[in-house]
């Protein structure tokens, strides 16, 4: 169909952009890094949101070249920022079963001369739905390279806790829907407490997503989250704006 051809062309002809959303250290509110989020500027449709083209990219296999572009662009950006600033990119299940992925990642970080631990790959629980043995193998090889692996959107998926002890995840990201619900719902607070305890037992860094208010921030910090992400500290922003933030601009 039309949109698929457009996307293939769009990837090649520079219609994709990455935005960067800040990640903040909960203890001192300093900037620790960014999550890269892709945008597609279609010549006639205008801005197409990722929820409209990532599923299409996954179905058609275009997620592979798209994902390679994202990794390249994110590493290029990270190389211009100080060593203590990390960059996270989102990975689809379909990318995680490619045995060549570790080599692709290694090539990107080597070419851009960034330390492996400055790159973080975010995956959701859905990676284990299909070829779970294959995905686990690729994740272990990525971990061996020294890149970070974050379990994204935790709690929203098909939560099977069995793979948490496979020692591949260094970080757990609590989905924003929990964070916002916690403002009104004691049961949700109890769920977050349990998630935090679970993650601590596995020595994982805990990030709260979707933090929009000062109340959200205090609540998630008090519950033991190490890192905070959300509109309170910044929406996804351009590379130029992110670089200003890195330089300490307000
Ligand atoms: O900001 P937001 O609307 O960008 O993101 C919507 C969804 O799109 C999120 O679930 C996010 O994980 C996903 N997404 C954003 N960028 C990428 C990307 O580069 N690759 C993949 N696979 N998913 C992405
Ligand atoms: O990769 P993931 O599915 O976690 O993507 C994060 C999504 O959440 C993106 O679409 C991003 O734009 C969005 N997001 C980030 N911070 C906030 C926030 O504070 N509130 C809301 N409603 N959405 C957020
Ligand atoms: Mn994410
Ligand atoms: Na999320």
TrEMBL record:
N-terminal signal peptide: none
Domain EAL: 1-250
Protein name per Swiss-Prot or TrEMBL: Diguanylate cyclase (GGDEF) domain-containing protein
Native organism: Allosphingosinicella indica
